[in-house]
Amino acid sequence: MQIQKLSQQWLTFYPRTKKVEEEVEDLTAEERRTLERKLKKERKKEEKKLMREAGMAVRKEEPKKLSGAELALEYLARWSKKPNEWKFQKTRQTWLLLHMYDKEKVPDEYFSILLDYLEGLQGSAREVTMQKAEALMKEYDSSDTEDPGLLEKCERIRKVLQLLS
Fold it and tell me: Which of 66, 121, 154, 158 could form a disulfide with 70 if both were Cys (CB 3.0 to 4.6 A apart)?
């Protein structure tokens, strides 16, 4: 049954000859699978060609890919709202730890969740975060800048230091 179907598909693309029919019947299972894949590929090509000729666009809708920031904030929200569905992801945590002082990348509503998240921070991530926060605080204390963005950043650093100390 399958051999007949395969030989019919094959013959739609190639002229009907007794030799071709015999060759299809003599194929091993692996050769048949290979032939099926080739036929499928050729059919798709033919369909696309017909669609182009008919003036129809042949495009696949690609899903919108979220940025690292969106993924990290989604990760944080899931941790907060749906802990049973949350799963630890090192890359998301790393992104959050690198950008937590930037108000534009981590808005205030997420920063309060992030502070709760940081309470559970363990191991070297906790130690490194503390060290970086202390170093940034020393750096900003030594500068005499009255930049409002910098003051907000310092406030966030203080909150993180208070939490992790």
Answer: 66
Name the DSSP class of 14. Answer: S
Taking the alpha carbons at both ends of the chain, their separation in whole angstroms is 74
How many angstroms separate the Cα of 45 from the Cα of each of 34, 59, 62, 79, 130? 17, 13, 20, 46, 58
**pLDDT surpassing 70 at residue 119:** yes
How far apart CA 114 and CA 77 sit, in angstroms, is 9
Determine how many CB atoms are found less than 10 A away from the CB of residue 6: 18
Q: Write down the pLDDT at residue 8.
A: 55
pLDDT exceeds cutoff 70 at 76: yes
Residues making up the chain, counted from first to last: 165
Q: How far is CA 102 from CA 57, 93, 152, in A?
A: 43, 15, 9
Alpha-carbon dihedral sign for residues 73, 78, 81, 87: negative
